Amino acid sequence: MGIPDRKQSGPANTSQQRIPPGRKQPGFEAARLFNANQGDQLQHSHLPPTDKTLTLNGKIVITGDKLFATTEKTVDFDGTVKICKAAHGSIASPKNAKENAAVLSFVKQFNTYAYLGITEGHIPGYFNYLTGKPLNFTNWYENEPMGKGTEKCVEMYTDGTWNDKVCSYSRLTVCEF
Ligand SMILES: [Ca+2]
């Protein structure tokens, strides 16, 4: 259940970086990279209205104008950033409750925390998106962040709340496109 038979379409891992010519839409490329077995289904679907969330086999969630996908694998923060960039996306950075819920669906499914695209700025206790822009949505766990300059990254707990954390743990890779 949940894990498709990969023998027919090859491994759906991140080493599969080839993007077929003619596939311009990042979401579709992401679908192919992250979930080869679902790619063909996505080709024939359309992005839903902004108030809808579409979930395909639990590994791709489209909400609003973003597509979230997981590799189903864990890696540290820097590794997550690299993997998501290589797939023409970026590490998941939920900017509202629905996007947070989309990331949470993976965290729950794999029962594994995920790093978010949020890091501590120069001032301890103040966190920004990787672009350097300040957060416009937060979902901190009670009393977090409390690393005070020692926990530069942010992970999502299995209840969807956030915790500042050192960046070297293995966490579920979740990207957005
Ligand atoms: Ca913390």
Automatic annotation (TrEMBL):
Subcellular location field: Secreted
InterPro entries linked: C-type_lectin-like (IPR001304), C-type_lectin-like/link_sf (IPR016186), C-type_lectin_CS (IPR018378), CLec_Tetranectin-domain (IPR051663), CTDL_fold (IPR016187)
Region annotated Disordered, chain positions: 1-26
Name by which UniProt lists this protein: C-type lectin domain-containing protein
Leader sequence segment: none
The C-type lectin domain, residue ranges: 84-176
Keywords: Disulfide bond, Lectin, Secreted, Signal
PANTHER family: C-TYPE LECTIN DOMAIN FAMILY 11 MEMBER A (PTHR22799:SF1), TETRANECTIN-RELATED (PTHR22799)
GO MF term (any one): carbohydrate binding
A GO cellular component entry from the record: extracellular region
SUPFAM superfamilies membership: C-type lectin-like (SSF56436)
TM regions (residue ranges): none
